[in-house]
TrEMBL record:
Transferase recorded as keyword: yes
Keyword Transferase assigned: yes
Protein name, entry field: Aspartate aminotransferase
One GO process term, biological-process aspect: L-aspartate catabolic process
Gene3D superfamilies documented for this protein: Aspartate Aminotransferase, domain 1, Type I PLP-dependent aspartate aminotransferase-like (Major domain)
Stored InterPro entries: Aminotransferase_I/II_large, Asp_trans, NHTrfase_class1_PyrdxlP-BS, PyrdxlP-dep_Trfase, PyrdxlP-dep_Trfase_major, PyrdxlP-dep_Trfase_small
Entry EC no(s): 2.6.1.1
PANTHER family named among the record's database cross-references: ASPARTATE AMINOTRANSFERASE, ASPARTATE AMINOTRANSFERASE, MITOCHONDRIAL
PROSITE patterns noted in UniProt: AA_TRANSFER_CLASS_1
């Protein structure tokens, strides 16, 4: 008998499973709208020019391959914090932000979850929105937190259920942790307005909740890294202590390089040093220290004014292409094909994804009849659409809902 004979087969990953089905489909019209990775106008993966130039600089500098410190490349972590919190952030200028380089956003959430499970004194419960990025739930459970939910999305309006959100946060036990998508909410593409963020900040203060921001798409929502950091910076300006996960997968196109950061704002430099020491104690037995190359790329871009400017332009270019696709899809569905239903949410949603409102049956039909692959909750990656396939997509959606 094999040692592993009793190991049960787990379910396939819902998103990676879609890519498998897509790859197996040989129809020339096939479209993969499952995975959240940017594609250019030709449907191809996109390596940013700023990244290529940074790599040339790194190669020319003939750097060694020594280990990084436990919390990563210090130039990178400092620049990442500056990008998120802003140059004039108070805790930043007080040297009071504890930050560690992480294995992209997922690693940042996991280190953050573990830190909170170990050191956050008031609660072991984290509230996440319904729906949320699917990986949040197992990730926080594996970190040792209990996961509960707050209302977020209103199926009827295909928009934010702001009343439900406020009620659920108000009814959460004092001191609970609350996970907030900083911008470009995944999977819905629905974000609170700035005025709604202010109300959320008030409830978080009143109920003494602890805000943990997941910022996986800074720059990707509006095209401006400053604008997309509004919620994070506003909360800090209101005196909240926050936890923050950052990813450079999307905004620098560094998906497979795994570049991210986890940070906590603290009350003083002295406190920050104690928190830093505990972050190291979490990282060291888990993976010892983070990978080098991607951090060098991101740090080169963030610290060279010319590359930084080029990068900002490219982030805006990616965001604008997606915004154009939203406009075009809306026009096709509501004007050209007069598709039954209300489609303005396609335009008002933001970031990589659109929650189309298509149901499971319709998604199935699209996969089986039209070779169009998306998650069964009706989420599409807008980046998978381009000038060549968007009409076919809209026509297929039209056929599926009639
Ligand atoms: N948070 C959210 C909301 C995401 O959508 C993603 C990527 N799909 C991540 C975190 C983490 O991505 P990564 O680990 O690739 O940075």
């Amino acid at each position: 008998l094999s040692t592993w004979s009793a190991v049960p087969a787990g379910p396939p990953d819902p998103i990676l499973g879609i890519t498998e089905a897509f790859k197996a489909d040989k129809d020339s019209r096939r479209i993969n709208l499952g995975v959240g990775a940017y594609r250019d106008e030709d449907g191809k993966p996109y390596v940013l020019n700023a990244v290529k130039k940074a790599e040339e600089k790194i190669t020319a500098a003939k750097l060694d391959k020594e280990y990084l410190p436990i919390t990563g490349l210090s130039g990178f972590t400092s620049n990442a914090a500056k990008l998120a919190y802003g140059a004039d952030s108070v805790p930043r200028n007080q040297n009071a932000i504890a930050v560690t380089q992480t294995i992209s956003g997922t690693g940042a959430l996991r280190i953050g979850g573990t830190f909170l499970a170990r050191h956050y004194p008031h609660s072991k419960t984290i509230y996440v929105p319904t729906p949320t990025w699917g990986n949040h739930i197992p990730l926080f459970k594996d970190s040792g937190l209990e996961v509960k939910f707050y209302r977020y999305f209103d199926k009827k309006t295909v928009g934010l259920d702001f009343e439900g959100l406020k009620e659920d946060l108000q009814n959460a036990p004092e001191g609970a942790i609350v996970l907030l998508h900083a911008c470009a909410h995944n999977p819905t593409g629905v974000d609170p307005t700035q005025s709604q963020w202010k109300d959320i900040s008030d409830i978080v203060a009143e109920k003494k909740l602890f805000p943990f921001f997941d910022m996986a798409y800074q720059g990707f929502a509006s095209g401006s890294t400053d604008r997309d950091a509004f919620a994070v910076r506003y909360f800090v300006s209101q005196g909240h202590q926050i936890a923050l996960s950052q990813s450079f997968a999307k905004n620098m196109g560094l998906y497979g390089e795994r570049v991210g950061a986890f940070s906590l704002t603290t009350a003083s430099e002295e406190e920050r040093k104690r928190v830093d020491s505990q972050l190291k104690i979490i990282v060291r037995p888990m993976y010892s220290n983070p990978p080098l190359h991607g951090a060098h790329i991101a740090n080169t871009i963030l610290s060279d004014p010319e590359l930084y400017q080029e990068w900002e332009g490219e982030v805006k270019g990616m965001a604008d292409r997606i915004i154009n696709m939203r406009e075009r899809l809306y026009q096709l569905l509501s004007n050209d094909f007069r598709t039954p239903g209300e489609w303005s949410h396609v335009k008002s949603q933001i970031g990589m994804f659109s929650f189309t409102g298509l149901n499971k049956e319709q998604c199935k039909v699209l996969a089986e009849k039209a070779h169009i692959y998306m998650t069964m909750d009706g989420r599409i990656s807008m980046a998978g659409l381009n000038g060549r396939n968007i009409e076919y997509f809209a026509k297929s959606v039209d056929a599926a809902v009639r």
